């Protein structure tokens, strides 16, 4: 008994000692790092990340805790139920789904086919119409370039919109270089295309109309059913990028009359690196494959199908189907809370894009008389972005907001709040509080805001040219 | 097989079995190291049971109960995995402001 007591007390003593030593070491480290931080950051840019229980230092910013996440359009966290479905296929069930000669292959193949049905069920399609890809970017590339390349003898024209995702626009640019014609439809100030303009843009040699379902930057929902009807009338294949729509708004390939549809896994609480392409079978749409090889996925996308990722995407789709109503109710309430919170305490808050025709989880706001980058810099405890992740590296205002006709100064101050399944009321309240504080702070030192308060219209000012 | 037959003979889960499942789910939810997952699991459990409170058809009660049990198993496994890879730094929502 006594010996036991001694042993345990000595272990506590040791523990205290080590802790003290650690603390001392930490103290020393803090001292040395503060004096030479700048030099070290310059020499070894990758080593400036430092994390302990007191906080995290990265890119010269010190934060006491992990920021609250409101950037669901960039990517969403993996749902634990999705991960639970995936893990077995990272452990013992590692077979290649295309192996036909043993159990490992068979069980993987079954899992892939189950996932295919789960994806198909969510969009009202047949499992035979689903092709797994690496993501929505690949699906968009196959759709836009693949269709036009396949029908290139008769079809030389593509119609798309100015607010499409970069990968659709870039694929169109690529086609233009090959000699195809592309019409980029403008959008109204609400971000929605004019159906009459679409109708008049269709030519006899139009091979594809590509309009995204939910915009990634402003969350606006396009009138897909009407677009589908026009495409059916002229017998033109219709492609839609539904990466931001899947699992969030009801998606039905027959109601929308789409021939092709791009889907993504990581926007619906699934894994990154997997997506799907819906390809209509009746009437059949054909594409030229981008990747050649083993002929997997009916030759449209060769390469071994990544079983764990595909299983994850299937599980995410099944969950989305079950949870859509519940999630939507919550996300709408949270969006309202966020918007009301901002508008109650700040003036000059503008919602970018249509207020009625939008997905509730995406709230793109502009704060007048505040510079967006400064605002984002001050909001280090809130993970939000100024637009899409793809373009956030540049300081240019978003091309989507420019297409909407948003003034340059307002386009520069936009912030996209992305609310998701795991967002809480407390997070929204904290985000409102931090944003309001930051905006007020920036406006306090803004001469523009002072002038506006004095009743001067900024647009009337004649700025001196230098 | 024997368990399934026994369950069929017993029929619908009793009130105390349902309450015990509810409490187990909430207990497991609290064990998630991740702020968002913890809050979601709690909220979803409470809302799910509230939604199914009015179920009267024995078949739907049994299927809701077995669904809940499956969810409990998932939550138990995942709370362990989350704890294994928990970041050193907590969410700012878990820090007292």
From TrEMBL, chain A:
Example GO BP: [2Fe-2S] cluster assembly
One cellular component term from this protein's GO annotations in UniProt: cytosol
Domain of life: Eukaryota
Cofactor: pyridoxal 5'-phosphate
Any one GO MF annotation of this record: iron-sulfur cluster binding
This protein's record includes keyword Translocase: no
Enzyme Commission number(s) from the entry: 2.8.1.7
Alphabetical keyword list: Iron, Iron-sulfur, Metal-binding, Pyridoxal phosphate, Transferase
One Pfam assignment: Aminotran_5
Family affiliation: Belongs to the class-V pyridoxal-phosphate-dependent aminotransferase family. NifS/IscS subfamily.
Protein name, as recorded: cysteine desulfurase
Organism listed in the record: Juglans regia (English walnut)
Designated gene of the protein: LOC109002577
UniProtKB/TrEMBL annotation, chain B:
Superkingdom, taxonomy of origin: Eukaryota
Entries under PANTHER family matching the protein: OS08G0239000 PROTEIN
Biological source species: Juglans regia
The protein's name: LYR motif-containing protein 4-like
GO biological process: iron-sulfur cluster assembly
Pfam families attached to this UniProt entry: Complex1_LYR
Complex 1 LYR protein domain ranges (all copies): 17-74
